[in-house]
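Our consortium's second objective concerns turning raw sequence data into structural hypotheses that experimental partners can test. To show how far this objective has progressed, the report includes one record in full. It was chosen at random from the queue rather than selected for favorable results. The single chain below, 395 residues long, was entered without modification.
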Amino acid sequence: MTMATNRRRKGRRTFGNVWQLPSGRHRASYLGPDGKRRGGPTTFPTVADADAWLSTVSTQIVSGDWRPPEPSRETFGAYAKRHLALSIGRDGKPLSPTTKELYALLWRRWLSPTFADVAIGDITTESVRTWLGTARAEHPGSTQPEKAYRLLRAILNVAVDDEKIRVNPCRIKGGGKESAPERPIAMPESVLAIADAIDPQYHALVILGAWCSLRFGELAGLRRSRVDLLHRQIHVLEQAVELAGGKVVFKSPKSDSGRTVEIPAELMPVLIEHLAEHVGPEADALVFTSPEGHPLRRTKFRPRWAAACQTAGVSGLHFHDLRGSGATWAAIAGATLPELMHRLGHRTHTAALRYQHATSERHREVADRLGALLRPGAIEPEPIAEVVDIGNGGR
């Protein structure tokens, strides 16, 4: 049997070794910065191919980009579980109970079936793109694939920091962008019909949800001391969150969106009556509770909401749509973008801009009616708003 021969050319090779095997192929090895000798990932057909691979490794070492290849063989499942167990967010702060539950769901339902048994180093951009495309196709309208993609990207970012991999394979353009279908906007008369149809103790809940654009959790966490009747203000400093097991916990508002919301004067009688009839006198008494006096849970309230919508003849409307409806009304009434951001508790323009589309639609409606005057035989158009004679005081 022919002995394997060392094909290193003395005086010419400055990094690594190359051997010719009995098969005629070549194996290469090098001494890493950590003092360990490592061989190439495969054999090479020629010395030139082996030299090219060694040259790539040498460049990585010189530039500081070299990483030991062994850690990347750890399965993504083992690494991800350790990362999720830490329950630490990007800002270094502990995750909220709801975020931990969300991450557990995203891992269990979306990431684990595809990536748990795959080595971290074997996750490629192509495999991520295939997984995301399949998830979107099989679950149209769901935003969870995008949420799962963002979680996958975040975990792999940490893997890059931990030198498990060199590059994060989550480089799908628009991969984490959610594209949920636009929710319906309810008209004021529809909201009032639902408020009249629901249990009396939740009449004010529906009204405030729309006219003050408050989230369900913010209303469920509202306490008597946060309602300033004198100045017509609601101080949003806490929200109630229902966990998977039904337990309700109280925490700061979503995205640190604590704020003060002005109450329209016309809503005051509704709110005053509710406080008098359905809320305890204590300063920390919850403004909205279950019929038994417990913290209000979304899952228990949902059937009451559905029944009220059915009675009012309104279909396809979620409670959270009241918030968007109220925001749209505010935009039509002339609220500026900063005013909308404050009222909604949004920190970025992007979230609040979606509610301003109504103002452009209103402007288009005005333009269309003006354009109708140019049509042959056009008659006086129907007024956009009711004209009221206010006498000489209107001059």
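The partners drew two points from this record. Residues 97-115 form the longest helix (19 residues). Strands lie at 5-6, 17-20, 26-31, 37-39, 227-228, 233-236, 239-242, 248-251, 259-262. Both points have been shared with the crystallography group to help prioritize constructs.
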